[in-house]
Amino acid sequence: MRPITKHILAAGVAAAALMGTHAASAQEVIKFAHVVAPNTPKGQGADFFKKRAEEILGDKVEIEIYPNSQLFDDSKVLAAILRGDVQFGAPSLAKFGKWTKKLQVYDLPFLFKDMDAVACFQDGEKGQELLKSMSSKGLTGVGYWHNGLKQLSANKPLKAPADAEGLKFRIQSSDVIAAQFEAVNAVPQKMAFSETYSALQTGVVDGQENTWSNIYSKKFFEVQDYITESNHGLLDYMVVTSTKWWDGLDPEIRDGLAQAMKEASAYANGLSADLTAEQRQAVIDSGETEILQLTDTEFAQWQTAVKPVWAEFSGDIGQDIIDAAAACN
Ligand code: LMR
């Protein structure tokens, strides 16, 4: 090859490389993966985040939302964030056990009497500190999103705790939730959200616990004869990202994303109560399942049966955190 040709080629390669770099820095492609359907508080929050981030930052960013476990399920998404395969995830607070024990507070049964108490704790000092509880692992929490309180469902009526004895329940990957079911002599089985419907349908498990929104949007009510309106625990989310990626962003992009996230959090949290009420009613209207209410005595029996779980996990979580949460009721 003649030297002149070599130089032209080298210049072409350098220019292409430069353009490639330039193109990459001109538009940040940002992936957000989650496991629920778009018509849920988290699904709507993620879609709102995309809309606002693209409005604020124009073509500097492209936000891609992957719902329904299309990209990663919750057992993989945090490692994927650290690898840079995805930039945002919002696993439920029950799914962080491998990364921090402190977030287990959110799974303690009957800790919050309603969603106002949840908001009080999340907005308070301890709740905000928990957003940073995985900083040593390279993960930053950028906000809390509500789903709601959990209900129990099964193929037999669950009124007293003894009714759950021996039944298999699909649970999220949380040791606290496992202990909660063991406390009533039931058999918890940790399982991905995406596998739950078929496990209920085929009888691999007898029951599950989840929010009205998840029970409705994933059609669990079609394969469960009874739902007990127990409101016995919380299913909320932490939106997380990689600290290294976040800190390394162009400041203009980071500020725009932070603004969009703040607005999306307010939007999702404002929406969750209405969506819960609407989807609860849709489950009732379907006539496919019977909704059971607990008497005050039955409610107290469940509380008493699972209360020892608090002491079992207080060392891992920190009594100060539990006290701050309980004080919000
Ligand atoms: C579940 O696994 O039941 C939930 O965490 C799913 C979700 O993201 O709401």
Describe the 3D structure:
- The chain is of the alpha/beta class.
- The protein contains 13 helices and 10 strands.
- The chain has helices at residues 3-26, 41-57, 74-83, 115-123, 125-130, 175-182, 196-201, 212-217, 243-248, 251-286, 296-306, 308-317, 319-326, and strands spanning 28-33, 61-66, 88-89, 139-154, 168-171, 187-190, 207-211, 226-228, 234-242, 290-292.
- The model is unreliable at 1-24 (pLDDT under 50).
- Helix content is 48%, strand content 18%.
- The strands form 2 sheets. Strands 4, 5, 6, 7, 8, 9 and 10 form a 7-stranded mixed beta sheet that branches. The chain has a 3-stranded parallel beta sheet with strand order 2-1-3, sandwiched between helices.
- Helix 2 runs antiparallel to helix 10 (251-286).
- The protein has one domain: Bacterial extracellular solute-binding protein, family 7 (D-Maltodextrin-Binding Protein, domain 2, 3-Layer(aba) Sandwich).
- The chain binds (2S)-2-hydroxybutanedioic acid.
- (2S)-2-hydroxybutanedioic acid binds at residues 35-36, 92, 147, 172, 193, 210, 214, 235.
What fraction of residues sit in β-strands?
Answer: 15-25%
**Molecular shape:** globular
CATH homologous group name: Bacterial extracellular solute-binding protein, family 7
- CATH architecture grouping: 3-Layer(aba) Sandwich
Low-confidence stretches: 1-24
Would you summarize the structure shown here?
This protein has 329 residues and is α/β, with parallel strands linked by helices. The chain is 48% helix and 18% strand. The chain contains 13 helices and ten strands.
